Amino acid sequence: MKRPPVRLGVNIDHVATVRNARGGVHPDPVRAAEAAIGAGADGITAHLREDRRHITDADIEALTALCQQFERPLNFEMAVTEEMLAIALRHKPHAACLVPERREEVTTEGGLAVAGHEARIAPVVKALSDAGIRVSLFIEPSAEQVEAAAAVGAQVVEFHTGRYCHLPYGERSAEFDRLAAAAAQADILGLEVHAGHGLDYDTAAEVLAIPEIQELNIGHFLIGEAVFVGLGAAIWRMREAMKEAVHGPREDDALVVDL
Ligand SMILES: CC(=O)[C@@H](O)[C@H](O)COP(=O)(O)O
Ligand SMILES: NCC(=O)COP(=O)(O)O
């Protein structure tokens, strides 16, 4: 069976990181989201951290409206807290991705511990699902976490690819196998498979060798790359890398090689 196109969700958190460094309004992550949609992003991802270090409540309100206007899904990343649940239920984004948060961390260091915390997580998954919000769990690619994600009623798992991306090229095969095994297991359990964190052009293409992956969420690299080539060009190049990873090189590229 032909593999459907893999979706690219663009995370615009770090546009807000730059904005907040000066406490003003520029650069605006909502404008970045509009530019990302214009450049071919299939959806927008934003993480409203409890400490509001990048995305703010007002950003989420404006991003919800923007995504509705352009009919693109908003993937709202949130910690498993009463406060975040109330915000998600107020805005009703297309999807909510439950992520772990530690106030002192520089970035999201690992996946959400679902196994062992089912009693706390299942009611949040249910409340979101009952409101028509698609629930994704940002987890480590482990059999235990995948099983727990299915047990609490999630529809989607997003595998944390940070560990994979940090390994030097040539030393990634064991982590790749871990991702591939978890993706196969998730698919068997009826979970849609996404991946994200730390991906760049190369690692995004590499993980797409895993056939169950249907969506990548990428932020930090694209926003960083935008400094050099512009956001539109970075997104275009990422989409080309993803297409080539899934469908092989374009025919005109093959011709150039043959000549
Ligand atoms: C959960 C996740 O991986 C994203 O939200 C992304 O990495 C955002 O950046 P920070 O983790 O640096 O806040
Ligand atoms: N869930 C991962 C995400 O949205 C983007 O992570 P990163 O590319 O900013 O590391």
Automatic annotation (TrEMBL):
EC number assigned by the record: 2.6.99.2
Residue positions binding 1-deoxy-D-xylulose 5-phosphate: D13, H14, R49, H54, T107
Protein localization: Cytoplasm
GO terms, molecular function: pyridoxine 5'-phosphate synthase activity
Enzyme active site: H47, E77, H197
Keywords: Cytoplasm, Pyridoxine biosynthesis, Transferase
Binding-site list for 3-amino-2-oxopropyl phosphate: N11, R22, G198, G219, H220
Primary enzyme class: transferase
Cytoplasm listed as a keyword: yes
Site annotation Transition state stabilizer: residues: E158
UniProt catalytic activity: 3-amino-2-oxopropyl phosphate + 1-deoxy-D-xylulose 5-phosphate = pyridoxine 5'-phosphate + phosphate + 2 H2O + H(+)
Domain of life, per lineage: Bacteria
Pfam families xref list: PdxJ
Chief localization: cytoplasm
Assembly with partners or alone: Homooctamer; tetramer of dimers.
Family that this chain belongs to: Belongs to the PNP synthase family.
Function in brief: Catalyzes the complicated ring closure reaction between the two acyclic compounds 1-deoxy-D-xylulose-5-phosphate (DXP) and 3-amino-2-oxopropyl phosphate (1-amino-acetone-3-phosphate or AAP) to form pyridoxine 5'-phosphate (PNP) and inorganic phosphate.
Protein name: Pyridoxine 5'-phosphate synthase
Highest classification ranks of the organism: Bacteria, Pseudomonadati, Pseudomonadota, Alphaproteobacteria, Caulobacterales
